[in-house]
């Protein structure tokens, strides 16, 4: 199994996506989200928890899919191309959202750090996409 630059980048992007999914599953409690909305109805808190839970699950599953395709299906150009473009779109949109509506501004430097990380992950998927196009 030969790991080219494009394959390695896709694998790194998949691992980071998986890690973000795992990390996001504990962020409400790690950062005490609910202390900021003490008088919120329980139903609203449950909705926030559910939304974050499904985001976490989606990131974990997409990360696992990317890793699986990278390790076992790299020869399958259609599957690889589809996964890489979906992951590229996800991370480009996430990066754009961070630029337009920054999160993490309460912690100095975090917002810029998030743009950098999200951009890096987007490039981990975009570069292999363009490398595959050039290969054809």
Walk me through the topology.
Layout (H helix, E strand, L loop, with lengths): L4 H20 L2 H4 L11 H31 L4 H24 L9 H26 L1
Annotation keywords:
single chain; 136 residues; mainly alpha; 5 helices; 77% helix; elongated
Could you describe the 3D structure shown?
This protein is mainly alpha-helical. It has one domain (5-135). It has helices at residues 5-24, 27-30, 42-72, 77-100, 110-135. Helix 1 packs antiparallel against helix 5 (110-135). The longest helix has 31 residues, at 42-72. The chain is elongated and about 55 Å long. The model has no long low-confidence stretch (mean pLDDT 94).
- Number of helical stretches of at least 4 residues: 5
Structural class: mainly alpha
**Molecular shape:** elongated
Summed over residues and divided by their number, the pLDDT gives a mean of 94
Q: Strand portion, in percent?
A: under 5%
> Mind describing the biggest β-sheet?
none
- Poorly predicted ranges (pLDDT <50, ≥5 residues)? none
List the secondary-structure elements in sequence, H or E: HHHHH
Tell me the distance between the termini.
21 Å
- Overall radius of gyration: 17 Å
Q: How many strand units?
A: 0
What percentage of residues falls in helices of 4 or more residues? over 70%
**Overall tally of domains:** 1
